[in-house]
Amino acid sequence: MSRLVTGVRSFSTAASSMLAGVTSARSAGHPSSFQVFRDVPQLRQLRRQLLRNDRSVGFVPTMGALHEGHLSLIREAARENTDIFVSIFVNPTQFGVNEDLSSYPRTWDSDVEKLEQLNEELAKATAAGSDTPTGRISAIFAPTSKVMYPSMPPSSEIDGDGSFVTITPLSKKLEGGSRPVFFRGVATVCMKLFNAVTPDRVYFGQKDIQQTVIIKRMVQDFLIGTEVRIVSTTREPTGLALSSRNVYLGERRRAVGLTIYKALKAADEAYRSGKTSREDILGAARSVTKRVLAEQEALSPTERALFEADYISLADPDTLDELDLVDRSKGAVLSAALKMAPLEETKPGEDCGLGDGKVAVRLIDNIILQPQQ
Amino acid sequence: MSRLVTGVRSFSTAASSMLAGVTSARSAGHPSSFQVFRDVPQLRQLRRQLLRNDRSVGFVPTMGALHEGHLSLIREAARENTDIFVSIFVNPTQFGVNEDLSSYPRTWDSDVEKLEQLNEELAKATAAGSDTPTGRISAIFAPTSKVMYPSMPPSSEIDGDGSFVTITPLSKKLEGGSRPVFFRGVATVCMKLFNAVTPDRVYFGQKDIQQTVIIKRMVQDFLIGTEVRIVSTTREPTGLALSSRNVYLGERRRAVGLTIYKALKAADEAYRSGKTSREDILGAARSVTKRVLAEQEALSPTERALFEADYISLADPDTLDELDLVDRSKGAVLSAALKMAPLEETKPGEDCGLGDGKVAVRLIDNIILQPQQ
Fold first, then answer.
1. What is the CATH number of the domain that holds B158?
2. For this UniProt entry, which segments traverse the membrane (chains A, B) (predicted)?
3. Which of B52, B192, B198 sits opposite A222 (nearest CB)?
4. Under a CB-based contact definition with an 8 Å cutoff, are residues A166 and B188 in contact?
5. Which of A214, A252, A302, B349 has a CA 20 to 30 Å removed from the CA of B228?
């Protein structure tokens, strides 16, 4: 650990450069409500101090680009812990060689602003004498790549050298099929973050269902002393699952992208109505995607948004093995990935999202088919 | 973690079966000086209690078959910590498919007896008012395979599924060349043990030099909050490095096995006398092994002990890359593996070791070529 450079500062919106080594005030008269750590040793010091004072730490790892989904994880953490640590780190090893690491949205200032506002909200809830006092965000951990990958440059090659955590066969399924290094990167960075923070509880969103299954498995298999909490997916009023990538959608693709959720809901209804076979359940989903795609194809290039269904899966909740038949006492994970193609032609003044509709956007979503008596 | 079965008992030599769920007394009137844990939750409870009381934990992971080398690690840990945790677990994932997992010595009763005696020694040292009070062994962690590998049977196949830590390219070098799953197994089990114990310091013997390099790298890369201490190799008066496998040697092979140390010493002398080229340093070692082998081959099958040099390596201390030239300011790791063949013919009454001289024994040893000004 001796090679790690010590670094800690309190956040200041006035001096928003990540590299400025200052200060304790958010702006004149508004002290910052949390500390920002760029390195591990002083984060550990705070953690140890909290432990000695019998305080509990809930940890929410993020890659920034915070949205209501992330905030819902933090609110959940605030119900169960006195202190919340949030990490913001865009992890290179979970992006494939040809994937979108450089285009991943980086929105530090607005992220911090959202966290400050959330802390004010949490403080008010406590002050207003809500039944259960809530915890607060105490620390943001925003490490450099060198802090997270100290000995070798992080590799995104599947056979690249480095220090990795692998969880197979789970990580080869579903999302792992098209993204072979993704869950190796996720498990590896989470192991590092968990070791740096040593949280009592960690919070993940159900939206990334395979990630939740892999993290639960990692915590179990590696005897990690933390509890994993899964928080249900936050959705737009239409039902579209929140995602940092949604900013690339624009209005037209946002509307058509909702198909993924509608297809899953149709399959869930089939299950609730008594169907248990793969054919019946996934058939209900596929008939939705087929119908919408046919409708879109009938429209002109200035009106339509085309997409491809990458996969629709019906799988065991622990192993993610595909199921031919759902055991109603155990339930299942119904998940899908859908790739929104770039818009073919845009209209003047159209809201096409970040990147003017030229960026393909892969949407994922899932529903848990609940166990029934 | 919820699948882990809670289990803790105090050790009792009277009821030495590992599976008996008893008791607190070592034997009538002699309370046991440490607790034996078979599972994680109550070990964690003790650890947390020690943390709150500002006590420090040094951790010595072992596979049992304890000898003076292990005890020297514990004595070192006692100098720096109030409490010492020792694990005894023969880790299946570090044995290859065709390796000697089943024949690895399992000596629970004598291991515990040695630890009890060592605790008495440590208590006496403190009572006698030695300058620095020493810590004591507080806990033995002797988990089942199911506790250590809770979700899937542990695989020893290089492409087998499971949850693993891989540290490459370090783990492919030297010992990893002939044992492809070895360091994956070591890193994986150590990550689990470190998570279960969360020690302030961990102790490893220099004898397994590649293991020490890999563990240091793992601790650094995964931001593990512990310090790694390397303790110099304990040797028999002749110079032979202690090893659990030495019990298989017998007198004749024990004498010839010393060749590995003599060869390393000759190379170290070449380095100390000013040589820095690979040819000069390793040449000095090889001339020793060649000479001894020629001497042995001249003897009759009832007198001789044959061996093969597996490798002799001159490597960088951090990367284990082979060196053509030693940078004197940095030093190097000089290491070797030597395989003692089974005895061809034995003599009546001869001490041939466990297995009657029929077991091939692979010896490893190393010397650090010290950096010089």
1. 3.40.50.620
2. none
3. B192
4. no
5. A214
